[in-house]
Amino acid sequence: MTEQHTVVVIGGGQAGLSISWHLVQRGIDHVVLERDSIAHEWRDSRWDSFTLVTPNWQCTLPGYSYSGGDPDGFMNREQTYQFVRGYADTFDPPVREGVTVVSVRQSGSGGFDVDTTEGPMRADHVVVAVGGYHTPVVPRFAERLPAGITQMHSSQYRSAGDLPAGEVMVVGNGQSGAQIAEDLHLAGRTVHLVTGGAPRVARFYRGRDCVAWLHDMGTYDVSIADHPGGLGKRENTNHYVTGRDGGRDIDLRAFALAGMRLYGRLLDVVDGTLRFAPTLESSLDAADAVSQSIKDSIDAYIAREGIDAPREERYVPVWRPGREVTELELSTSGITSVVWSIGFRTDYRWLRAGVFDGEGHPTHNRGVTAVPGLYFLGLPWQHTWGSGRFAGVARDAEYLADRIELEAGVLPATATLA
């Protein structure tokens, strides 16, 4: 027997729940399929000291928003999980947990055939709400690290205490890498941090969180189509900053002064020796330049709007590398663990539709693909920079729900086909 639904939503995180809320409001028949449990990624794929980098007041979903007593604070891992899980409790979405989608393909008669571990389904519309981070990236040359070194991806890291005694190398300084390096450093571990091209942003400037300034400036609302970087922005690394202990900057130069060892880009491992590009100084300078440019835009906004805001001195680098290290012998380094924090690859092999580019990324306009009835939700820069935040997901979900309602209308409730 094949189940028939107007809409099948794949993924039960904040994106899948957001589109479900809109479909419920419109009376549109649908089901949400979640391979694990609602919002499980927030609990299962974050380290123990994790916090959001966006303030709590920015945490809004359709019909739901943060209501705690610390709007300017930053929810930790458990609080974020409970926030999203609590959202589901407010409107009883038709979520089926523990159901894996095996394949989705266009049906010859129109719509989509959806094969699941609970049996076949047929849908007029499919919303893919599984995000864009699927398969952890670890370079092939990691296989050449000595067998005695513990290796893990950032998605597996939980705390410094889970790693064997000794020094730790973190590869990658995006949001996760920089925060994990800080977590290890605060735990008293000697940390080796391999830097890349990640930009940074100040936590606070001229009396406010930078997120608040950028929100008021409309920065999170600029569409990718109108952005100078165009579609290439979707590949950009997020700015590193932290919400830990009420929020603060992450300054890699200050970490270096305190004993953290910094390197340029990791090129290879040859006979137990790590080889680095001499890119550390340029990476630090580039990250600082981005932070300064954001402050420039805030200054200009304050002047343009005539806002009374306190003046603030600009950041002055507290440390500069001398001669850059380009080789490190592992056997004498004291390193016993490596945490790879260089991102994820997409994996849509189960989705059999011609909507992907040469690198496996979905091609779409605001989540709407060239295949009628197939949509994506919850992708980075889906429409704006804000698409990666709760409030942006909410807006993107409303847009897609409007499209579905326009194209499908409100059809009869769930039926069963032979």
UniProtKB/TrEMBL annotation:
Among InterPro entries, the record links this protein to: Auxin_biosynth/cation_transpt (IPR050982), CHP04046_FMN-dependent (IPR024000), FAD/NAD-bd_sf (IPR036188)
Q: Know the name of this protein?
A: Putative oxidoreductase
What residue intervals traverse the membrane? none
One GO term in the molecular function aspect is: flavin adenine dinucleotide binding
Ordered alphabetically, the record's keywords are: Oxidoreductase
Recorded hits in Pfam families, A to Z, give: Pyr_redox_3
Q: Which Gene3D superfamilies would you find in this protein's record? A: FAD/NAD(P)-binding domain
